[in-house]
Amino acid sequence: MAENLRHLRALQAFDETATHLSLSTAAAVLNVTHGAISRQIKQLELHLGVSLFHRRANGVELTKAGARLHQSTRSAFSELQLGVREVKRQRQRQSVTVSLSTSLALKWLVPMLGHFQQAHPGISLLLDTNDAFADFDTSEVDVALRFGTPPWEGLTHERVKEEAQILVAAPKLVQSFPQPMAPEAVTDLPLLHDAFNVGWDSWADQVGLSADRIRSQNIKYVDSAVLLEAAIDGQGVALARHLLAERDLHLGRLTRIDDSRVPLDRGLYFVCRPGDQDRPPVRVFKKWLMSH
User: Fold this and answer.
1) CATH code at 81?
2) Contact yes or no for 231/241 (Cβ under 8 A)
3) Is the same domain home to 162 and 238?
4) C-alpha 290: how far from chain center
5) Domain boundary residue among 91, 118, 138?
6) Which of 32, 81, 99, 137 has the CB geometry, 3.0–4.6 Å to 144, for a possible disulfide?
7) Predicted confidence (pLDDT) per residue in 78-122, tens digit
């Protein structure tokens, strides 16, 4: 065993080189020099008595022996990484890493966090704002707040909020119109579109208008928070997610201009690994979240 462990660093150098087929990339990943990677691989090849790579002008290529070894090292180092992450998560039991979109963080969660910190000063929250779904197999994320449709394979989930879209605008934009606004009056104003939550045609159908009344040339926004900021600025009427618009409505930055409500087939879910919902800080965070 001691003999084999002497080559652990060389095996890591080999694994990164085999993964990227580049000594330079492996050196960058491991924060060592190109020469150090080359020497470690050479030592490993001498120890095993086989060549692991064919050297090419634009990189390296695995030999048959190298390909067989890489199957083992990739699996072994992946298991090691998972083990290290799990130990760190268990050690940091009073912290919760939460993955969520930037829009949800800015418009909903962050404004409430002061209350959470006052109520639970012993729990640290780390917000990982990323619009991509968190990969629970390769990250240290404890909880993901996902706007979508379950199930998610291998994960547990619980719905936090149903979602719908509502019409909102800056008070200054619509102050001269009778409230609630007539549908025809709404479509005479610039209409702001959410690229990922298309709903204007559904709204038009709900209020009895032809979809031709919806102007296709208006700006589309990928980020829901940016869409709401454009509405707050008075640039047009937004068909926005109610959850994200709620605080701006409460603060008077936006006003709801009719009673329509366009349901969405997706909701906001609390997602975590099976069993993690019972970890004390995760359980406390979820209970607090569900009450807001």
Assistant:
1) 1.10.10.10
2) no
3) yes
4) 20
5) 91
6) 99
7) 888 777 776 665 555 578 999 999 999 999 999 999 999 999 998
Pick from 291, 218, 268: nearest CA to 107:
268
Q: Which backbone phi and psi does 8 adopt, to 5 degrees? A: -60, -45
pTM > 0.85: yes or no: no
Q: Residue 12: which domain range?
A: 2-91
Buried b (16+ CB within 10 A) or exposed e, 30-62: bebeeebbbebbeebbeeeeeebbeeeeeebeb
Give how many domains the chain has, as a whole number: 2
Mean pLDDT of 147-161: 93
**111 and 29 in one domain?**
no
Rounded (10°) angle between helices 34-48 and 23-30:
110
- 32 shares its domain with 160: no
Residues 159 and 119 in one domain: yes
Computed over every residue of the chain, the mean pLDDT equals 89
Residues 154 and 127 in one domain: yes
Rounded distance, CA 92 to CA 112, Å? 23
Cα distances (angstroms) measured from residue 39 to each of 35, 83, 212, 257:
6, 28, 69, 70
Whether 86 and 99 share a structural domain: no
Note the residue count of the chain.
292
